[in-house]
Design brief:
alpha+beta
């Protein structure tokens, strides 16, 4: 089915993204995977190409558009290229809204130009060793000392944790914390007491640096409070719909791409003197996956349209996230199986897609959390 959601300007942007990937990402990606981190030069190249800060006002160096379809194009093309390590979606779609929606004018002028030109890489630190999806369990805390906060605690599994120049930290600013006692504090590179731990060794997305962060009596200026004091819970809930949609967009793109490469593989690969594509079992497998992808794509495109006009709610974003990521997981497993032994070899794209995509049902809110949100909306 021909997709209906994109205009000619989105198609032109897609060609720009593909050219950028071919020139600035794919020639270096294997070395980034081995190093466990991408180069800062790639971030600056993305900024120069206009791929950062798509929704940031032009006066700060951004693209000046809140049309999420551009972000969808970016996510789709990076996914198809098998290059999640350069985490532009995290920067643009997950962290960007906190800065554009909550920052004061002084903060915007201080942070947004670097955010858009690639010299200021960002991260958001929510997860802790003892608190994942449950924000009520956050223990990192900040004490009010008049003109500054003193921040103590630790975070883990923080994407961009090694590279980040600016980290939005979720911390308790009341003794009880929870829904009414969390705030967002911005910690900048070089701040005394802010330390980075290991670049964590993951099973997939090897080029994407993921770190432990430690805060020991870190002095955070009062002007680095982002949004309302004790208002973090509401801020986080407001921005999670876009985060989950962004993950879902990359998930369906991954599933569709796996289907494409597996279709070509089973046509060429022979077993017992005939192509795999002639076997009924293989045909049924491909038919099931193609149908599931087509149905999911229709729903996702509707969600993209709704979000582009400000009408996507948390429940439908949760539906999109859990369904698309679980589909991606199923398709990756079935496509690897159809590749046989070759599917287990790292040189084959299906193998990398299998390990890179496994995190999708976990971060941004697990599948179980998504179902809980949907269930509560239905049953109270």
């Amino acid at each position: 089915m021909k997709r209906q959601i994109f205009a000619p300007e989105h198609d032109a942007f897609r060609e720009t993204v593909r050219a950028f990937l071919a020139r600035e990402v794919l020639p270096y990606y294997e070395s980034w995977e081995k190093a466990g981190i991408v180069s800062r030069e790639a971030w600056r190249a993305a900024g120069k190409q206009g791929l950062l800060g798509l929704a940031v006002d032009e006066e700060y160096g951004g693209g000046g558009t809140d049309d999420f379809r551009y972000s969808a194009v970016l996510a789709e093309e990076f996914t198809r290229a098998g290059a999640p390590g350069l985490a532009l979606g995290l920067h643009n779609d997950i962290i960007g809204p906190y800065l554009t929606g909550l920052a004061t004018e002084e903060q915007r002028r201080r942070w947004l130009p670097g955010f858009c030109d690639g010299t200021l890489i960002t991260a958001i630190a929510m997860t802790e060793p003892g608190a994942g999806s449950d924000l009520q369990g956050i223990r990192t805390h900040a004490e009010d000392r008049g003109d500054h906060w003193v921040l103590n605690g630790s975070k883990t599994f923080i994407s961009n944790g090694i590279l980040a120049d600016l980290v939005i930290v979720v911390a308790k600013t009341t003794p009880e914390g929870g829904a009414h006692g969390l705030s967002l504090l911005v910690v900048e590179r070089g701040t005394a007491g802010f330390e980075r731990g290991r670049n964590l060794d993951k099973i997939g997305q090897k080029a994407q640096d993921t770190a432990e962060l430690f805060f020991h009596d870190v002095r955070v200026p009062k002007e680095n409070l982002l949004g309302e004091l004790n208002g973090a819970f509401v801020h986080l809930m407001t921005n999670l719909a876009q985060e989950r949609l962004s993950i879902a967009v990359s998930a369906i793109a991954a599933a569709e791409h796996l289907l494409e490469i597996t279709t070509e593989y089973v046509k060429e690969r022979e077993a017992f003197g005939r192509p795999l594509a002639t076997k009924q079992h293989v045909r049924f497998e491909m038919a099931e996956m193609a149908t599931e992808c087509a149905v999911t794509r229709t729903f996702l495109d509707r969600c993209i349209e709704d979000h582009s006009i400000g009408q996507l709610d948390a429940v439908h974003a949760s539906m999109a996230k859990w369904w698309a990521t679980e589909l991606q997981k199923r398709v990756a497993d079935r496509c690897l199986q159809l590749h046989g032994g070759y599917g287990y070899m790292s040189e084959y794209p299906v193998a990398r897609a299998f390990t890179d995509g496994r995190i999708q049902t976990i971060y941004g809110g697990t599948t179980e959390i998504m179902k809980e949100i949907i269930g509560r909306s239905l049953l109270g």
